[in-house]
Amino acid sequence: MLVAAIVVFGLIVAIGSAVAANYVWIDSNVKGVGYTNSEYGVDTRYGIANGVEMAEQESGTGLVTTQRWTLEVNKVNIESLCECYCAEGLEEKKVLDVEYFPITYQNHSYDQKWQEKKCVKNYLIGAVTDANFVQCEKLQKEETVVTYTGYEMPAPYPPYDKWYDYNNDESPSASLTQTVTADVLGISHIGFAAKDPGEHHHTIAYGKEETIGQFQIEKTIDIREACNESMVGNWLGCP
Question: How far apart are CA 120 and CA 100, in angstroms?
Answer without folding.
Answer: 26
